[in-house]
Amino acid sequence: MINNKLKSNDDGYSATLERLVGASIYIHIPFCKQACYYCDFHFSTSLKNKNELIEALIKEIELRKDELQDQNITTIYFGGGTPSLLSNAELELIITAVYKHYKVIENPEITLEANPDDLSKARIIQLSKSPINRLSIGVQSFFEADLKLMNRAHNANEAKACLEEAVKYFDNISVDLIYGIPGATNAQWIENIETALSYNIPHISCYALTVEPKTALETFIKKGLIKNVDDDLAQEQFHILIEKLETAGFVHYELSNFGKPNFFSKNNSAYWQGKHYIGMGPSAHSFNGKERGWNVRNNSKYIKSIQNNVLPIELETLSQTDRYNEYVMTGLRTIWGVSLLKIENDFGKMYKTYLLQQSQKHINQQLLYIEGDKLLVTKKGKFLSDGIASDLFKLNLS
Known about the structure:
The chain is of the alpha/beta class. It has helices at residues 13-20, 50-63, 88-101, 121-128, 144-150, 156-169, 186-197, 216-222, 231-247, 266-272, 299-307, 320-332, 340-347, 349-364, 379-382, 385-392, and strands spanning 23-29, 72-80, 103-114, 134-140, 173-179, 203-208, 251-254, 257-259, 277-280, 285-287, 291-295, 313-317, 338-339, 368-371, 374-377. The strands form three sheets. A nine-stranded mixed sheet has the order 7-8-6-5-4-3-2-1-9, sandwiched between helices. Strands 10-11-12 form a three-stranded antiparallel sheet, with no helix packed on it. Mean pLDDT is 92; it is low at 1-20.
């Protein structure tokens, strides 16, 4: 019989991350050279108000300095958009502001999302001398046809060239790849994986191409200019991905993330483990354990509000049921699973009973299993984990 079970926390991954992961700061840089056809994140292709926005970011960092005063900052993450469009001097101004107003641990994980076309040899060397110690490189594919279909700003040669240089100066590198691309065969997907592995990268994040509403990709598919995504093909490629990366020594520690031991993303792990984080910049999200907040999704409105000393944030207080549902969703995506003891302690016996009842059919179908205190997803169920989680959600409770 095939063993569909995933390795959970037997190797001490959970305990290690618990020690390493504290509060986090996420900084959204809402600028891109051009719009990728599949992207629905907030960004602008105009850089005319970049200086004003950086000033506003630095001011927001100061305005929110009391929110995490009792916690140590263990990760700083520049996301976007395309943060690598900022100069080293601009990035260091922002990092300096964080250090000035928050308690940052010694040697925090500081990640910069970067596109290959921004990572010349000279830029990589500059970054290696900065406080940034982790690169997350948006390769997506090593095939020109895929990159053109997605309207990426870089080409395949730039992707390979930047990785050749990056590994000389950074130990901690993550590469993003996308699977389920229309027209991309399983053989091409295997070549993408093997190409990434050839650079000895310690972390790989992989996402299924998703057709988001109001994106150019959705429009092109509706007009018949691009084939629609094939969910069955995406699922095949997801399982190929797991087999190839686990054979190469990676741990599949979250639905979309694979890391060598000691190279899990501390920033993302903080999100999945319910740690507190502040999101700075337009559209950025925050979480303090009880409330979720999100900044206005408009650069000009964001800048104007911050200039007036008003945080452009909308807050939502999470109910007990909201927090339960969120914990189930994030827990099932990871190797740490959902703790039945935590469910009972934090939410009560009724929630635990409900969770076990709802889980039973998925256990019978070999999509879920219980190991010790943990409810976990099998390999067979991993691709379906978000749908399984939604079936375990509790509704209409205060």
